Amino acid sequence: MAATTHAEHEEIARSKQDGEALTWEDLTKMKLTWRVAQETLRMVPPIFGSFRRALEDIEFDGYVIPKGWQVFWVASVTHMDGSIFHEPARFEPSRFENKSSSPATAPPCSFVAFGGGPRICPGIEFARIETLVMMHHLVRQFRWKLCCKEDTFARDPMPTPLHGLPIEIEQKTSP
Ligand code: HEM
């Protein structure tokens, strides 16, 4: 198992000819990269929540949600619950080891960046492919660094870095 995302992508690239396209099998090897992406989605879920309607009376945490009421579920509240994700404010991709979409020990619907249940995002696999392919080329072809300390964001409602996240980017001469 590669120790860094960089090593993971270099290893995949070594098995390919120059310019040869990535395959599905290559994507399955990007395990660390996907954990990094999942941890990012956990800490800053692009879709912060959505609505559901109670199909029957539900008791939750001492409150009764009557049948027919609309409920707003919020991803960040679940993702920052310390009883599900130990030290939730810490960026720790290894918490996604052992399982592809949610921590091994967590209850169902703990990682809800893509929602959950019958209306779960049908674009998960496509989003995963786009993320991994983009990361592969970004990591292999460029060096970049942050121009200023940027550690917070605002929602409108998508999360946007407060200062625009300027970076200095440089193309590597030989990837
Ligand atoms: C990182 C990328 C993405 C994230 C974080 C994301 C997240 C979500 C979330 C949270 C929902 C609501 C699910 C629920 O209510 O349980 C959703 C629904 C949906 N997503 Fe995505 N999504 C992503 C990418 C995509 C892509 C690439 C596509 C299509 C190619 C897509 C198509 C849809 C559709 C059609 C729905 C509505 C499903 C329904 O209501 O039955 N999404 N997505």
UniProtKB/TrEMBL annotation:
Membrane-spanning intervals of the chain: none
Keyword annotations from UniProtKB, A to Z: Heme, Iron, Metal-binding, Monooxygenase, Oxidoreductase
GO molecular function: heme binding; iron ion binding; monooxygenase activity; oxidoreductase activity, acting on paired donors, with incorporation or reduction of molecular oxygen
SUPFAM superfamilies: Cytochrome P450
Entry keyword annotation includes Hydrolase: no
GO process annotations (BP): sterol metabolic process
InterPro entries: Cyt_P450 (IPR001128), Cyt_P450_B (IPR002397), Cyt_P450_CS (IPR017972), Cyt_P450_sf (IPR036396)
Similarity comment: Belongs to the cytochrome P450 family.
Protein's UniProt name: Cytochrome P450
The species this protein was found in: Oryza meyeriana var. granulata
